[in-house]
Each structure stands twice: as C-alpha cells, then as structure tokens.
Specification:
The protein is of the alpha+beta class. The protein is built from three helices and 17 strands. The chain is elongated and about 100 Å long.
C-alpha cells in the first residue's frame, strides 16, 4: 500500500492535455485537465484555451453517468466529490457545450486496489475450491499472480491449480481439496503501470463427514425426546390402575348389599 500511496502522490502533478476538433476548418482548442486532493475531497477541473465558439454550458461524465451539468458560459469547469483518488479512479470527461461540442478528459490513475470476493472460503475435502479476486480501480491490471503461505507462487502447470485471469478479475481453482495440503492463506497479486496491490483469502477445508454432523445432532435430539416420553408414560400408568379398580369395585359392593336386603324382606313376608 505504501507504493500505491507514493504513486498516487506522483499523479497529483499530472497534467492531462487533450486536443479536440472544433469545427470543419480543422482548428482545435486545447483543453487542460487536472485534479487536486485535499480535506478529504477530490476536485477535477478542465480549462479550454482560445475557445473558437460560444460556450453555453458544461457537463461532467464518468462511466456514461452524468455527474454534473450546468448552463454557465466560460472556458473553465470543475467538479468536486468526497473521498480519495483510490476510491474514485477512472476516466472523467469534461464537456463544453456549444456548436460544436468539445470534449476533454481527466484520468485518475492509481496502483491496483485489489479486493477478495470473499475473505474466507470453505470447501469440502475432495471437491474443487474456487478463490476470486478483483480490481475495481483504473488502469486495468496487466499481470495477475497467486501465492500460498508457506508454498510460494502457484502455477497452472502443477496440475492441481487452474488460474484464469482477465482484465480486472482473477480466479484460482484448486482440484481435489486436501485438508492437510490446501488449508491456509492465499494471496492474489496484481500489477499495472503504476504499481502493485494484493489481497488475502483464507481457505478452510472440511472433512466430508462434517456435513453429517448437523443431521446426527438432530437424530440425537429426537432419540432423547422419545426416551423421555417413553419413561414418562411408563411411570404414569401404574398410578392410574388403582383408581380404575376402586371405581369398578364400588358398584359390586352396592349390588351385594341390595341382594341381601331383598332376601331379608322376603323372609319377613313369609
């Protein structure tokens, strides 16, 4: 990151000169563009020397998005935004409205600002692991490389590693993940004309049996619950049996008494 900061400071003195056609006669006014950094803000400005026509307004465009637009006359225009040049690198167009329209540009160039798609990745033993890094800054990366802690640079020729890089994105595929060999920190490194940048991805490789642990936990909970219900039911039933016996014996005793009283009345009548 120190190299990136040094490169950025060197760019602050950069003056971008753009020559744009200004009519069929072939004459072309010069547009000087630059940017200044201070107080957490970045200011872009463009100045047209010797305008050949009446200026009716200005416009600032970045990535096909209009950032600022006005209808002021004048051969100078500026645009200010909060942040750092590392966060807002790229090509900015300044447009002078008129007949014809004249365009200039300011390039904010920085060393690669590499970020990992995920700082921590997980994979199962035997599967293919995929690690990804990207660079959102300008200019684009010219060279990507991958390294592993304690191993050194990784190469496609090794047979287990497949590296695919295109522009501002790189991808590392690790075939047949191994817990002992592949677990650790991986570094993606990017280079462009202004310097280098890198990011770290931590890879954790899990055993195939690890996927069964949640299922086994659920099974264990079910078994414990069934055991508790079984023990509760077994202890509850003996307490209910005497109540049923008592309830059934009362009518029998009452019937015996009724028969005895009936026999006594019959003897008395005789």
């Amino acid at each position: 990151m120190a190299a990136g900061a040094a490169g950025t400071r060197a760019l602050l003195a950069l003056l971008v000169l753009c020559s744009m056609a200004a009519g069929a006669a072939g004459t072309s006014p010069d547009i000087a563009g630059n940017f200044l950094v201070g107080d957490g803000k970045v200011t872009l400005w463009c100045n047209m020397s010797e305008p050949q026509h009446t200026i009716t307004g200005h416009k600032w465009i970045h990535k096909e998005k209009t950032l600022k637009e006005d209808s002021e006359p004048g051969a100078s225009t500026s645009y200010t935004f909060e942040g750092t040049v590392e966060e807002h690198s790229g090509i900015y167009e300044c447009i002078f409205e008129g007949n014809p329209q004249t365009r200039g540009q300011v390039n904010i160039s920085v060393p690669p600002q590499v970020t990992a798609y995920k700082k921590s990745e997980h994979g199962n033993e035997g599967d293919t692991g995929v690690l990804t890094c990207k660079n959102p800054s300008f200019p684009a990366v010219t060279t990507w490389s991958w390294h592993k802690s304690g191993h050194g640079r990784l190469e496609n020729a090794s047979g287990r590693y497949i590296i695919k890089s295109s522009g501002n994105k790189t991808e590392l595929r690790i075939l047949k993940l191994d817990i002992e060999q592949d677990t650790g920190d991986y570094f993606c490194n990017a280079t462009n004309p202004l310097g280098t940048g890198d990011a770290t991805v931590n890879l954790r490789v899990r055993s195939r049996l690890a996927a069964l642990w949640p299922f086994l936990g659920i099974v264990a909970e079910v078994l414990v619950l069934v055991t508790i219900i079984f023990i509760y039911e077994k202890r509850r039933k003996p307490d209910e049996v005497p109540d049923d016996d008592d309830g059934g014996s009362a009518p029998l005793k009452s019937n015996a008494t009724n028969h005895k009283d009936k026999n006594v009345r019959q003897r008395n009548a005789n």
